[in-house]
Design goal:
149 residues, alpha/beta, Hypothetical Protein Ychn, Chain: A, globular
Length: 149
């Protein structure tokens, strides 16, 4: 009878792991690593480092199915995602093609518009979130690892 119990526990344990991964990001049900990069400084070297590390993680794990990467920008970091003369645009598009998601804080965008009179435009594929830090906290609570390069 003990043997039968062990057989039932293992499938239930495996089921709970897959349910938890799907709860973190339903679009990446097989990902067992969930990483959130914070980019909040207006520093091109930090922009580049965040992109390098994201790319290195994808190469390390060999498949974007097993790693889930988000980049959240706020404050000076939103410059990383602006359209126009963006030296990182091709790298960002390449990462987007590998299912890396990029987010911009709309509170920062609103403040920038108030201060300059012009609303900044962002690369295609960038998603706005109302409050970047609050979004990060919610993602961390779900199980994302927070990285601030």
């Amino acid at each position: 009878m003990k043997m039968l119990t062990r057989f039932w526990i293992f499938p239930l344990f495996a089921l709970s792991i897959s349910i938890q991964a799907a709860d973190i990001n339903p679009d990446k049900p097989f990902a067992d690593k969930h990483v959130l990069f914070q980019v909040s400084d207006n520093d091109p070297a930090k922009f580049s480092l965040a992109l390098d590390v994201a790319n290195n993680l994808i190469r390390h794990y060999g498949s974007t199915d097993v790693i889930d990467i988000e980049v959240v920008t706020f404050a000076g970091g939103i410059n990383m995602l602006m359209s126009g003369d963006n030296p990182n645009a091709e790298r960002i598009r390449s990462l987007m093609a590998s299912d890396v998601r990029f987010f911009v804080c709309l509170n920062t965008v609103d403040t920038m518009e108030r201060n300059t009179g012009t609303r900044p435009e962002f690369l295609d594929g960038v998603t706005g979130v109302q409050t970047g830090v609050a979004y990060m906290l919610e993602e961390i609570e779900k199980g994302y690892a927070h990285i601030h390069p």
